[in-house]
Amino acid sequence: MSTYPHCTCTSCTIRGLMGPAIVTTLGILFLLSEFRHGSASIGHTFPILFIVIGIILLASAVAPKDGHIGSDGVTTPPNAPGPPPPTYTNSYPGPYPGQRQ
């Protein structure tokens, strides 16, 4: 057993589905190949595997990482609102040099 804590954030949970999704997709593709007697062979349907991988990677990238536990065991805090944007004031009243009035 590993002594590292297991991350249960949404992003890591979705990424953990990669293996089962690939195995299931391969099984379905081989099953289709057998039912269609080679007309739907793995050589013609392998792009579906890339689509499944892309969907899982996209879902993992978009999912929130609140509570993510990194490889060093440190938990990532939820996103806090940042500081307000600075307000700018014009320190030179009047027109800029070369500007018409």
Measured as a percent range, the helix fraction is 40-55%
Radius of gyration, whole Å = 26 Å
How many helices does DSSP assign? 4
Q: Could you say which structural class the secondary elements and strand pairing correspond to?
A: mainly alpha
Q: Report the major sheet.
A: none
Spans of at least 5 consecutive residues with low confidence:
none
N-end to C-end Cα span: 77 Å
SSE arrangement, N to C: HHHH
**Arithmetic mean of pLDDT:** 78
Strand composition percent: under 5%
Overall 3D shape: elongated
Q: Give the beta-strand count.
A: 0
Overall description:
This protein has 101 residues and is mostly helical. Helices cover 44% and strands 0% of the residues. The chain is elongated. It has four helices and no strands.
Sum this structure up briefly.
With 101 residues, the chain is an all-alpha fold. It has helices at 10-15, 18-35, 42-45, 47-62.
Properties at a glance:
elongated; mainly alpha; 101 residues
Sequence-ordered SSE layout with sheet pairings:
Layout: H1 10-15, H2 18-35, H3 42-45, H4 47-62
